[in-house]
């Protein structure tokens, strides 16, 4: 808003630039005044129309007061998203797998620091668009109650305590240490009881029991809001107990405002206010829906539904004072963020674009990826590579699988654009290339009917089959391939995410063209279904024109062309080409992009014969000493409300939890060569893979590991990184072990209520070393309700390698019908050298010692209790148990 310096002259506050000085006209302009006073002054000067104009997703400019437009919608789930290049950390489920709150706090700090830099740069260039603001709709702290939910990857897993601690660390890292001047505002979402199905979310009602609400669905929100002081929260699409979340008095009035004394603002999920009347039929029209949402406590709508509030005032559905209360909360946030102060006066004025994807932040992303790795199996010490029992003599490594060279499998969803993403096959090649030959074969698609990126192995930069793998790329700073290219390079494959980002330096993110040339050699004579995917056309910004187009030439003949505009959304246009031999054929792909807002996104994919790909992988395995198979899922198959309908996948959710058949057949085929098989999973949710558990030599869970994922995986396989991640969710053996997806009762779900035998338990994870626990001590064997309990013990590294151990403390309370079997109550990730002993200390307060009855009442209750301390749950690891009793009863606040 201001570009001048703040001065005090003769007691009068002024803004001055050079010799010119301008006295402040209104109190709200005065940074020396308290925020509440400034907000009251500004809102008192606004007309009803101007107030209401601040309440949709994009708050309108108020030119007579010099107030610029502001868009509330910004994303920062695991890196600043959708606003160009940024550090891309592991997906949220991977962040949780670190079980390291200090580390996640640092991630939040890094993300919000980059956000500040991007915001300052955007304001300096007059950019007030979506995704460049300071109010971030993260983290997603919904409970991942069922592995079928496609958005579970965005969460911190199935446990309310782990979710609350990771969420708390993220929120405080994002907002910073000064509550009066937050670095950004975090928005824990989706409040509340929200976890699919995606296809039903706009009209689905959850009748959650009082106990499930208090023990499972609300604790993480309470922690991030009461302890973490999050300044915002987002209400969900679904209804709870018959009332839509964004018009739900129990959630927004009683729980949030009354019980938790939340002073911040509430935003709706996108077009959730529309759902109040169209999906849930809870109101007759938009005007009444907007009024209900406002009166319940929703302050801004992601959408434009709140424009109806002006008429709602006229129709006596709401009062102007209710409008004032919401608008004041919104302006309080903007004033606290410093949006109405001179840039030089900002607490964060020294943050520049140099921090964005800086060396320090990339190093942090690598460290987080390392710590997120979960070793699920290591038969007879197969790993580390070159040192394990089956891999000491390795000279050739076969790298296979659809995720070995997938950019999407690094990024996850709600992601930024990485500058130098390290794909798994490239990480393996870079790390092991001096010690072993690396053979790569894609091996399979994700599932029957699913497209996968056309791999580098079919491309060459020339017409000769022995030319360099990949395509010659030319990048132009115009949309017609005119003049000399700004940059030339070799691109291994056409799989690019340039969302709001320039593809190369010297090229505008908003207008450019690319030409890829070389040859394509089919792995076998057949008809091949190709697919060019253009995604920029799918943006939601109003009144913007995006133009993207492509042409594909094979054998110098036009094979396919396409273009898009906003009305057509994402382009995905399959075309079939008959390749009669395996010889190189001239290939050219021309792509042009023009957008006033967004960078481009293009992916060249195919659906080849599964047997052809599988045979290539078997051939590579036959020539190798070990096979590393990168399998799992893709954020293009699991995610938010997606137009996906394949065997095992529907609308973003999964209908099966098994490893898809195409990938299972790949694993069995390469294993049949007799070579040791190491399975590396890249996925955002749990998989049932009993065959791999029985037959693979090793299994490593890598999640969607972020921009440094390839390096982190290579280091972990080698032993340079000793894995210590733990599962933040249960891996079930079969879908038959679970209740119906639509059933929100926690009975039979997650480790706290599941009575069956899981494939891999919540909290599970192996190491290349071993640990032993001893000398468990409780501060008392009997305590009165309301008193704390201290648990202490020692952990020793009994192996030959340095490593980290995650010490997990579980509480088993006196059993009452419907109660948890056990619950995580504390944890600590510690680094321990060989032969070293570290002392552990855990303090449990009344909340951690409490239980919840069927009426949802939380209290410390009398009886005999057991604590277990170890590297996992009692049924999966050696550890220590201790008993104590509690006398009396002590209520615990909601």
Can you walk me through this structure?
- There is one protein chain.
- Strands 18, 19, 20, 22, 24, 25 and 27 form a seven-stranded antiparallel sheet that branches.
- This protein starts with a strand and ends with a strand.
- Helix 9 packs across helix 10.
- The longest helix has 24 residues, at 101-124.
- By secondary structure, it is of the alpha+beta class.
- Helix content is 23%, strand content 26%.
Briefly summarize what is shown.
With 894 residues, this protein is α+β, with helices and mostly antiparallel strands.
Write the layout of secondary structure elements.
Elements: E1 5-9, E2 12-17, E3 20-23, H1 35-44, H2 48-52, E4 58-59, E5 70-71, H3 92-97, H4 101-124, E6 135-136, H5 160-175, E7 185-186, E8 205-206, H6 210-217, H7 219-227, E9 232-235, E10 239-240, E11 243-244, H8 249-259, E12 265-270, H9 272-278, H10 286-296, E13 300-302, H11 309-314, H12 320-336, H13 359-372, E14 374-378, E15 396-400, H14 408-411, H15 424-432, E16 437-441, E17 452-453, E18 459-460, E19 471-476, E20 487-491, E21 495-497, E22 511-520, E23 526-534, E24 547-554, E25 557-564, E26 571-579, E27 585-594, E28 601-607, H16 610-622, E29 626-632, E30 645-646, E31 649-650, E32 653-654, H17 661-671, E33 677-682, H18 690-695, E34 698-701, H19 709-718, H20 750-753, E35 771-778, E36 782-784, E37 789-797, E38 803-812, E39 823-832, E40 837-844, H21 846-849, E41 851-852, E42 858-860, E43 863-870, E44 879-887, E45 890-891
Parallel strand pairs: 6-7, 8-10, 9-12, 12-13, 15-16, 15-29, 29-33, 33-34, 36-44
Antiparallel strand pairs: 1-2, 2-3, 4-5, 10-11, 14-34, 17-28, 18-22, 19-20, 19-22, 21-28, 22-27, 23-26, 23-28, 24-25, 24-27, 30-31, 31-32, 35-37, 37-40, 38-39, 38-43, 41-42, 42-45, 43-44
